[in-house]
Every structure is written in C-alpha cells, then in structure tokens.
Amino acid sequence: MLLLSCQTKVEADLPSKLIEQEELPTVDATNFETTYTDSGIVRYRLTTPRLLQFDNKKDPYMEFPDGFHILEFDKNQKITSGISANYGKRYTREQKWEAIGNVVAVNSQGDTLKTEQLTWLEKDKRIYSDKYVRIIRNDQVITGIGLESDDNLKNWKILQPKGTLYVKEEQ
Fold first, then answer.
1. Which of 64, 58, 53, 52 is nearest to 120 (CA)?
2. Separation between Cα atoms, residue 22 and residue 18, nearest integer Å
3. Displacement of CA 157 from its chain's centroid (Å)
4. pTM for the whole thing?
C-alpha cells in the first residue's frame, strides 16, 4: 500500500498568517540606497541597511527595521536637511514618515534636533513630535516636550519649553 500527501508537515504546522502573501514583504532589500526626483531634479536620497516594503497591505508601507538616513536637496543639489533614526516607517498613501529611536534631524544652518520619535508629513512639509526634544544651535541648547516645524527645521516651535542654555563662544 502506498500513501501520498500534497501537504508537508512543516506547512501544516505554520500559522496560516505566516504563509499568506499579504503578510510577506514584496521587497526585502539590504544595503539599500535610492534617490527621489521631481522633474529630473534629485530631491531626496535615502540609505538604509534594510528595507521591507509591504505593497499588498490595505495601507501599504515601507519599513526600515535597522534604521535609515535621508537627505533633502534644493534645486541646486545643496543639502537643505537630513534625518536619521534607529527605526522608520513610511506610509505610502499618506506620505507620512515615522522615525523612532535616536532621531537626529539637521538643517542647512547646522541646527540639530534630537528626540526619540518624530513624524514627517511629506505633502504638508511639516514635522512634529510629542516627545522630549532638544535643539542644539550655535549659541544655545533648547529643550522641551513636543515640537512643530516645517520640514527644513527652519521655523520651529517647542510646545512646552523647559529651558534655554546659552553657550558662550571662546575667543
């Protein structure tokens, strides 16, 4: 007597969600780098150790589980701002980014924002956080809870300022 089966034991033991196509990334890339252009002009450059892209989800997104770094350029290819974080997620339809863990954003004047979580609304050109923030400028360090700003970190407002420390430059 010979018995045959079309299902393996391993497949039967796996939860069905793990083998559904919707749960698997459509792209899984390592050491990924890309540029975003607008009318032939480079606007952003993104680098990440790992990219997971989920196009089959109801709300498609890209995930950066090992962190990311993104630079924004003006029309003359000059860097206008940059942001990096330990983890990130970009919701494709909403054009919304979430940066989490050791978030650092720098503008063209060298002002640096440090926080643990930051949201960037691409189409509104706005960033915000409801976490502790620290802004380091040439002559001062400003801290507080919550931040709203344009995406170039030029016009920012700390929602609950905690203090300003002025730094005197050495002559």
1. 64
2. 9
3. 20
4. 0.80
